[in-house]
Amino acid sequence: MDIGSPRRESGFTLIELAIAIVIVGLLLAGLLGPLSARVEQQERAKTQALLEEIKEALLGYAAINGVLPCPTIQDDPANAGYGVAAPPPCPVGGPVGVPDGILPWKTLGVSPTDAWGRPRTAPGDPWRGYWRYRVDRNFTLPTTPITLTTQFNTTDALEVEDAANNKLTTTERPIAIVFSAGGQDRDDDGNDTDGDNTTYDSIYEAGLYSPTFDDMTIWLSRPLLFNRLIMAGKLP
Question: Which residues contact 226 (CB under 8 A, 6 or more apart)?
Answer without folding.
Answer: 146, 148, 235
